[in-house]
Amino acid sequence: MGIVIGLTGSIATGKSTVSLMFEEYNIPVVDADKLSRKVVEPGREAYNQVVSVFGEGILRDDRTLDRKALGEIVFNDEGKRKQLNDIVHPAVRQEMVRERDRYLDRGDKAVVLDIPLLFESNLTGYVDKTLVVAVDEEVQLQRLMERDESSKEEALSRIRSQLSITEKVRMADEVIDNNGSKRETYDQLEAILRQWNILS
Ligand SMILES: CC(C)(COP(=O)(O)OP(=O)(O)OC[C@H]1O[C@@H](n2cnc3c(N)ncnc32)[C@H](O)[C@@H]1O)[C@@H](O)C(=O)NCCC(=O)NCCS
Ligand SMILES: Nc1ncnc2c1ncn2[C@@H]1O[C@H](COP(=O)(O)OP(=O)(O)OP(=O)(O)O)[C@@H](O)[C@H]1O
């Protein structure tokens, strides 16, 4: 039976960067962020629920979700965030399990579930091992602002919507320190995969 790795971290600590490295080893990655976009495409059940709760003001002219507008609402209001999570998360979980099992049935040696809210949503039961990608808080803020071209306020409101990276590090089976170069991150990943007998 293949090993299921739960890859997490806090926002902008480098999960997607490490996901790409897994793919270089031909280890498949199921990406919860990607699925969370898919389940709210127009016509899907979760889309209809989001519109009925948040109103047409969060739609763009082409009737797709205005993610920036919705983000401004939910990253500044815990109650609203919970309402959105309660709609989107069950649909994401269902798709995630389906994809995970498809890879396991195919006989893959390992499968990665890249889930930003792995600990917050108590999803550790879906995985065998947890791997946290960590950076110092100043690096996190800097990289987030640069990547999203966001203000300090916007970035901080997103960071504060999740458990701190320190808490996640404490709960992890293994941690990758992503403060340094991507090469150093790659080397740490390789060592962990050897330790878990995924690479020989
Ligand atoms: C609010 C939304 C529309 C904003 O979209 P946007 O394109 O700006 O951001 P994106 O989806 O790419 O998320 C970027 C990062 O924000 C963080 N994040 C997203 N949603 C949440 C949340 N509900 N709580 C805490 N952090 C979150 C994650 O670290 C994620 O990697 C979107 O994030 C969303 O639908 N969130 C609810 C679903 C969710 O929890 N997704 C994350 C894991 S399934
Ligand atoms: N070792 C590194 N050195 C320099 N920049 C990096 C490094 N790792 C990641 N980055 C950059 O930091 C930003 C955040 O990384 P990434 O998008 O992988 O984070 P994430 O954890 O997937 O974010 P999110 O929670 O939003 O999905 C990106 O712009 C990425 O290119």
UniProtKB/TrEMBL annotation:
Binding-site list for ATP: 12-17
Involved pathway(s): Cofactor biosynthesis; coenzyme A biosynthesis; CoA from (R)-pantothenate: step 5/5
Gene3D superfamilies per UniProt: P-loop containing nucleotide triphosphate hydrolases
Keyword Metal-binding appears in the UniProt entry: no
Enzyme class at the top of the EC tree: transferase
Catalysed conversion reaction: 3'-dephospho-CoA + ATP = ADP + CoA + H(+)
Primary localization: cytoplasm
Keywords, in A-Z order: ATP-binding, Coenzyme A biosynthesis, Cytoplasm, Kinase, Nucleotide-binding, Transferase
InterPro entries xrefs: Depp_CoAkinase, P-loop_NTPase
Assigned EC number: 2.7.1.24
Keyword Transport carried by entry: no
Subcellular location: Cytoplasm
Single GO MF descriptor: dephospho-CoA kinase activity
Family: Belongs to the CoaE family.
Record's function text: Catalyzes the phosphorylation of the 3'-hydroxyl group of dephosphocoenzyme A to form coenzyme A.
Name of the protein: Dephospho-CoA kinase
Species, as recorded: Pontibacillus chungwhensis
Lineage start: Bacteria, Bacillati, Bacillota, Bacilli, Bacillales
Name of the gene encoding the protein in the UniProt record: coaE
